[in-house]
Amino acid sequence: VKNDLQRSADKEDVGLSAHPVTKIISGAQTGVDMAGLDAGKEIGIPTGGTAAAKFQQSVGEKQKEFKPELANIYGLKEGKVTKRFTQDGRQYDDVYYQRTLDNAQEADGTIWFGNAGSPGGKLTLGKDAQKGKPVPLVNPTSAQEIRNWLNKHNIKTLNVAGNREYTNPGIYDKAKTLLSLIHISEPTRPY
């Protein structure tokens, strides 16, 4: 049974050209990051990227899981811990900061799904992460919109980023549905 988003995307895909993507990377966080990696696997595009240190994923407000097996499944590298400071001057270990910058810079372009004003959105879409890159595609609503952006900017290595599943329930399904449809190419027409 297809949902409304899938039915809508199916209608758009008739007579459209394929994308130039040869690799999908992400930071392997729950939600959008995993949607990008899973979509890549589903449609036969190699995956990779830099995950958080210790392959950490946030599965709840203060719940973490460590999944080193993701390295072999998705071709991920382990990110580095960065010493950072809170606004009141306390030092802490940040497992996400450097991998976010690394993925944005390794890619030819970034697609963001979710709240662009979240801390992760601000970092991923900010000038340090996006230096020398095309303007990221934020919250696309169709596979065609994604393909147009990919083709316009000749994106070969795509960074897929966005909110965690627990902060934005349903974001995994939304992102994976759209990303899984980018491979549909223009049908051959008889002359």
Written description of the protein model:
- The protein has 191 residues and is an alpha/beta fold.
- 35% of the residues lie in helices and 21% in strands.
- The chain has eight helices and ten strands.
- The protein has helices at 4-12, 32-43, 70-74, 97-106, 119-125, 127-130, 143-152, 171-180; strands at residues 23-25, 47-51, 56-60, 63-66, 76-78, 82-85, 91-94, 109-113, 137-138, 157-162.
- The strands form three sheets. It has a six-stranded parallel sheet with strand order 5-2-1-10-8-9. It has a two-stranded antiparallel sheet with strand order 3-4. Strands 6-7 form a two-stranded antiparallel ribbon.
- Strand 6 (82-85) and strand 7 form a beta hairpin.
- The model is unreliable at 1-16 and 186-191 (pLDDT under 50).
Low-confidence stretches: 1-16, 186-191
Structural class of the helix and strand makeup?
A: alpha/beta
Instruction: Give the biggest beta sheet.
Output: 6 strands, parallel
Quantity of strands, as a count? 10
User: What does the overall shape look like?
Assistant: globular
**Element-level helix/strand string:** HEHEEEHEEEHEHHEHEH
Query: Widest sheet: strand order?
Result: 5-2-1-10-8-9
Count, helices:
8
Q: Report the oligomer.
A: single chain
Estimate what percentage of residues fall within beta strands. 15-25%
Helix content: 25-40%
The first-to-last residue Cα distance is: 35 Å
- Rounded to an integer in angstroms, the radius of gyration calculated over CA atoms is 17 Å
The residue-averaged pLDDT reads: 89
